[in-house]
């Protein structure tokens, strides 16, 4: 090789088009494994003679760990290892097609070339990613529309609220923006696994199962100074309220800018959304999943215990809980460790709930294994199975005597309306049937028993549980809360307590009612209201009791999750207690987005955002946050003057779209009375 350093043409545009990496805005070559890419370089004499290429990654590359490959020119691409095939030569340059194996370690590689006995000359670096478009790859996804959605789509919809009233909001994953790929690679190099043994860690980076587990630990801050610090206290001083984020970019950039200090604060959807960004960026097909009435079974008995006092207040006793919703991830890859029927969607959960292997990580658990009750298969099957299947036990707890009395148990409460965004559309798809057989069916109960048996629970009857005959006692009355009117922040809350006498003789019932503001995890924050009534129900009679909680009563107490738990504990004379409860999520007032004119690449377009103050008092400290990949750089923040009662505000700003196609604009509006009202709009950008 001549004394000069060879200059390399990486054919960035052509290679990116072939490798589905055009959305990255990088001066570095980014390609996918198991597929050829072309480079041209000069500065070699008799170029096609005796060229040897060296591709290496990680701190101490070696052939045994598959982090170092040396390969010479061959006539055809190899199916097994790395290979180089001459495409064309001229007097002083050569074009080479380089192929990597389907199971190559992913990450940043250094590429050099050696000719004859001279020392190797560096050609530069490139990044190698997973390849869901290639049939030999562990992440191969045969459906191209699914590849587009689960790898290339930068916009997502996350479902929230509760099972009676599912709401949704947009999220900007932004996996191809700015420096995100480099940040994702640095997440890998900061994991506990890498710190303990960098050489082994890098050698495992060919395996999506390994990386999924490592990243489920690194996206939360527990153990390893990971990306996001969780906070479920309802107090978010010193950081951002988890409900205020609209995308992953700001979070990942902040983590890097602060010198890799955990970003404050996250709750489940934030962990899931950031994990989606990182995995899509690396090329592993990934989506967010929302499970409604999601169980957190802390003691591994597939049962969730909830305790109430004599006034019907939900007590913080025991570590079990049921969340209105919980968001986790599914990633698509084969499970060579379990066998073909367990391949496909795998559950990963980056929210720090329980330790697994000594650190806060969860998954991958095969979704098929969860459906079939195969809770003994790797990883974390019992925890995930309980999230969608646990039985609920409701207890009355007397703090004076420490006595627990079972009020009732329910096996159909947990794991409802499991939801994800549709492929190519902004709609909800229900995937509950992929997690379990129909609630209440014999098959579903059989699977539950199978799971209990595998966990050694089938013979262990809990000594604290009441005797079986006590469980079988039938209540004399039934009750439910009905919503009367709208459920909106700023409006009075109107409910009906409906009680029905199931017996053929009259019953006297003393009812103690409470309403608490909660987080979406149903953790109580402030008591809003309480009342008690005594009623007599004639035989088989049904009666309705109206309940009104005025806006001023709850306005100071409500959390930014906008959730209220209402309970009525009914003490029936000479009968067993009946617990009636309902979790209510209030809707925010609406905001409206209008695009004034046609959106064209590199041309200014004006957008108008309108909000009407729905309450009788002034709102102030109004802030509008706007973001959207390929529409706007970073986040636009606009301060809005105070709005008098029922006044409408209209705010205009300009966008300059950078790429054609369907793009999503996300808007978040906050003021002193309403937190984080979100909406999004799809904008079709034309060339």
What does this 3D model show about the protein?
- It is built from 14 helices and 37 strands.
- The protein has four domains: 7-129, Immunoglobulin-like (Sandwich); 144-455, Coagulation Factor XIII, Chain A, domain 2 (Alpha-Beta Complex); 474-585, Immunoglobulin-like (Sandwich), CATH 2.60.40.10; 591-685, Sandwich (Immunoglobulin-like), CATH 2.60.40.10.
- It is an alpha+beta fold and 687 residues long.
- The longest helix is centred in the middle third of the chain and has 15 residues, at 268-282.
- β6 (83-89) and β7 (93-99) form a beta hairpin.
Short description:
The chain has 687 residues and is of the alpha+beta class.
**Uncertain runs with pLDDT below 50, 5 residues or more?**
463-470
Mean pLDDT: 93
Question: How many DSSP H or I helices?
Answer: 14
Query: What portion of residues belong to β-strands?
Result: 35-45%
Strand order of the largest sheet: 19-18-17-14-22-23
In the CATH scheme, what's the topology name of the largest domain?
Coagulation Factor XIII, Chain A, domain 2
CATH-level-2 architecture of the largest domain? Alpha-Beta Complex
The major beta sheet can be summarized as: 6 strands, antiparallel
Shape: globular
Distance between the termini: 46 Å
Radius of gyration: 29 Å
Backbone structural class? alpha+beta
CATH level-1 class of the largest domain: Alpha Beta
The oligomeric state is single chain
Tally of distinct domains: 4
Q: What's the count of strands?
A: 37
Percent in helix? 10-25%
In CATH, what is the homologous superfamily of the largest domain?
Transglutaminase-like
Protein name: protein-glutamine gamma-glutamyltransferase
Domain Transglutaminase-like: 260-352
Cofactor: Ca(2+)
Organism: Toxostoma redivivum (California thrasher)
């Amino acid at each position: 090789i001549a004394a000069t350093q060879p200059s390399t043409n990486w054919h960035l545009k052509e290679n990116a088009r072939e490798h589905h990496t055009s959305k990255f805005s990088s001066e570095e070559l980014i390609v996918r494994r198991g597929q050829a890419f072309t480079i041209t370089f000069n500065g070699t004499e008799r170029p096609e003679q005796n060229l040897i290429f060296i591709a290496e990654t990680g701190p101490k590359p070696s052939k045994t760990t598959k982090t170092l490959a040396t390969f010479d020119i061959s006539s055809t691409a190899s199916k097994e290892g790395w290979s180089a095939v001459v495409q064309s030569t001229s007097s002083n340059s050569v074009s080479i097609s380089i192929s990597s194996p389907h199971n190559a370690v992913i990450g940043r590689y250094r590429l050099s070339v050696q000719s004859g006995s001279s020392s190797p000359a560096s050609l530069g670096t490139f990044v190698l990613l997973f390849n869901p478009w290639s049939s030999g790859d562990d992440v191969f996804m045969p459906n191209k529309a699914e590849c587009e959605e689960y790898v290339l789509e930068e916009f997502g919809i996350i479902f929230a609220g509760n099972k009676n009233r599912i709401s949704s909001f947009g999220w900007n994953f932004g996996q191809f923006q700015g420096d995100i790929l480099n940040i994702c690679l640095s997440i890998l190099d900061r994991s506990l696994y890498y710190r303990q043994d960098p050489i082994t860690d890098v050698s495992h980076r060919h395996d999506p199962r390994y990386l999924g587990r490592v990243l489920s630990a690194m996206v939360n801050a527990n153990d390893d100074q990971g990306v996001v610090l969780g906070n479920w206290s309802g107090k978010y001083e010193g950081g951002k309220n988890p409900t205020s984020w609209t995308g992953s970019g700001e979070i990942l950039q902040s983590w890097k800018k602060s010198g890799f200090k955990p970003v404050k604060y996250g709750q489940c959807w934030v962990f899931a959304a950031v994990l989606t960004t990182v995995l899509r960026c690396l090329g592993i097909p990934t989506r967010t999943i929302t499970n409604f009435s999601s169980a957190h079974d802390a003691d591994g008995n597939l049962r969730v215990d909830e305790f109430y006092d004599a006034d019907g207040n939900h007590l913080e006793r025991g570590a079990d809980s049921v969340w209105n919703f919980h968001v986790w991830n599914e990633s698509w890859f084969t499970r060579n460790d379990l066998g073909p029927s367990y391949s496909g969607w795998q559950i990963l959960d980056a929210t720090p709930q329980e330790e697994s292997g000594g650190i806060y990580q969860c998954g991958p658990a095969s979704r098929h294994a969860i459906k079939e009750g195969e809770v003994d298969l790797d990883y974390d099957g019992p925890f995930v199975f309980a999230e969608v299947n646990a039985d609920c036990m409701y207890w009355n707890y007397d703090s004076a005597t420490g006595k627990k009395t079972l009020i009732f148990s329910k096996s159909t409460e947990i794991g409802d309306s499991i939801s994800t965004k549709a492929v190519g559309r902004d709609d909800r798809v229900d995937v509950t049937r992929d997690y379990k057989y129909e609630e209440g069916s014999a098959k579903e109960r059989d699977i539950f028993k199978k799971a209990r048996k595998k966990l050694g629970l089938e013979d262990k009857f809990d000594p604290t549980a009441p005797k079986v005959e006590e469980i079988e006692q039938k209540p004399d009355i039934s009750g439910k809360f009905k919503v009367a009117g709208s459920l909106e922040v700023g409006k009075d809350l109107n409910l009906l307590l409906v009680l029905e006498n199931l017996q053929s003789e009259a019953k006297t019932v003393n009812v103690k009612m409470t309403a608490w503001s909660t987080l979406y995890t149903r953790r109580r924050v402030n008591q809003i209201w309480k009342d008690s009534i005594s009623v007599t129900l004639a035989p088989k009679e049904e009666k309705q009791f109206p309940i009104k909680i005025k806006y001023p009563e709850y306005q100071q107490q409500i959390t930014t999750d906008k959730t209220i738990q209402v309970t009525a504990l009914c003490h029936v004379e000479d009968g067993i207690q009946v617990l009636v409860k309902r979790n209510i999520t209030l809707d925010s007032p609406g905001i409206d987005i209008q695009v004034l004119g046609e959106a064209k690449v590199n041309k200014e377009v004006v957008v108008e955002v309108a909000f009407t103050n729905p309450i009788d008092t002034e709102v102030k400290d109004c802030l509008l946050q706007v973001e959207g990949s390929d529409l706007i750089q970073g986040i636009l923040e606009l301060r809005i003057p105070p709005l008098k009662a029922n006044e409408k505000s209209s705010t205009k700003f300009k966008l300059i779209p950078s790429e054609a196609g369907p793009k999503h604009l996300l808007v978040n509006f906050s003021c002193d009375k309403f937190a984080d009202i979100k909406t999004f709009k799809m904008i079709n950008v034309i060339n």
